[in-house]
Amino acid sequence: MSKVLVVTSGKGGVGKTTTTAALGAALAQNGQSVVLVDFDVGLRNLDLVMGAERRVVFDLINVIQGDANLAQALIKDKRVPSLSLLPASQTRDKDALTSEGVAKVIAELRKKFDWVICDSPAGIERGAQMAMYHADMAVIVTNPEVSSVRDSDRIIGMLDSTTEKAKNGEKLEKHLLLTRYDPQRASRGDMLGTDDVLEILSIPLLGIIPESGDVLRASNVGAPVTIAEPESAAARAYNDAARRLAGEKLEVTIPTERKGLFDWLFKRRVS
Amino acid sequence: MTFLSNIFKRRSSAPVARDRLQILLAHERISGGDGKDDLLAQLHREIMEVIKRHVAVDQDKVQIKLDRGAHCSTLEIDVEVPGLTDVKPGEKPAIQAAKPAPQAKKA
């Protein structure tokens, strides 16, 4: 039973690509076969975050237009064998994403992988609509900040009205992933708390990813945070989120940094 | 002094953010976000149509104020009507249409 998952948010810069990479890697590390599909045509970045930027030969648009077949375009991850990437085109524009083409590619990917994770571009236009259209479930990435929450609300409305599932009268599973969360600022009352965001958006919570320097360090070296810094608070939060996606019932907590004196003295310098 | 008053007077900002969002989203959800007008926009358009039927209205002389609240919203349309004869010089002739439009809170 393969699942198509869209990672979306409306607003840019909230952590969609980071989340796609981290959740995908976590699922693959747990033994699932996973493909990450970048829908951000013209501004692709998933290849860079995954450290595969120098291995891109063909892309999603090439496959849609028949210039390459799927096997030629898929890039296998070197660290986790069951993880693959289908990059977006950097040179073409979004109009090249035809509905029929995307439908064909997604159908083919469904046959090959347990999880097809679509990294949506920011915004609500064609790229974002194509990324969400075939989804069985959605992860809505939200920062505890007013503009991000507003945009997420809009995206939730679109998921409920413009997707294939919605048109067939079926329910699309939606999950909220709260990223860049700072527990201290929230407890001081200067950041929207988890309860505030959940009350406003009223969809189930998949996880809370704490604001963490490890996320930036991981993208610097081109690896999902769950691979690059597996012991970090962010990686553990992503791992738990991935297990919840796969159906496990885990209580949502906010992981904190585990820091011994040794780590504190040496970790900064190493990276 | 400023330092002290900052410490004691400062209110946390998260509840303000939550309340603002709840009001805003209640309205945006009604309009559906798909280009459909919400009630206030529709009222505005129809009121203007009625006024235009009777007087020539200069678009620059129309002021529209909107205040969206949690329980009650107000739409204020201030139209300056030129050339009404029984008005003393210096007094601004105006038709004011203020329409309180109670809106249901988010279900």
From TrEMBL, chain A:
GO CC annotation: cytoplasmic side of plasma membrane; cytosol
SUPFAM superfamilies on file: P-loop containing nucleoside triphosphate hydrolases
Binding residue positions for ATP: 11-18
GO biological process, one term: division septum assembly
Pfam family, one: CbiA
Signal peptide boundaries: none
Alphabetical UniProt keywords: ATP-binding, Cell cycle, Cell division, Nucleotide-binding, Septation
Domain of life: Bacteria
CDD domains: MinD (cd02036)
GO molecular function: ATP binding; ATP hydrolysis activity
Keyword rRNA-binding part of the UniProt annotation: no
InterPro entries for the chain: CobQ/CobB/MinD/ParA_Nub-bd_dom, MinD, MinD_FleN, P-loop_NTPase, ParA/MinD_ATPase
Domain called CobQ/CobB/MinD/ParA nucleotide binding: residue spans: 5-225
Assembly notes: Interacts with MinC and FtsZ.
Primary role: ATPase required for the correct placement of the division site. Cell division inhibitors MinC and MinD act in concert to form an inhibitor capable of blocking formation of the polar Z ring septums. Rapidly oscillates between the poles of the cell to destabilize FtsZ filaments that have formed before they mature into polar Z rings.
Similarity comment: Belongs to the ParA family. MinD subfamily.
Protein name: Septum site-determining protein MinD
TrEMBL record, chain B:
Top-level taxon: Bacteria
Region of interest (Disordered), residue spans: 88-107
Comp. bias (Low complexity): 92-107
Keywords: Cell cycle, Cell division
One Pfam match: MinE
Keyword Flavoprotein: no
The keyword Acyltransferase is assigned to this record: no
SUPFAM superfamilies linked to this entry: Cell division protein MinE topological specificity domain
Annotated GO biological process: cell division; regulation of division septum assembly
Function text: Prevents the cell division inhibition by proteins MinC and MinD at internal division sites while permitting inhibition at polar sites. This ensures cell division at the proper site by restricting the formation of a division septum at the midpoint of the long axis of the cell.
Similarity annotation: Belongs to the MinE family.
Protein name per its UniProtKB record: Cell division topological specificity factor
Species name: Acetobacter malorum
Top-level taxonomy: Bacteria, Pseudomonadati, Pseudomonadota, Alphaproteobacteria, Acetobacterales
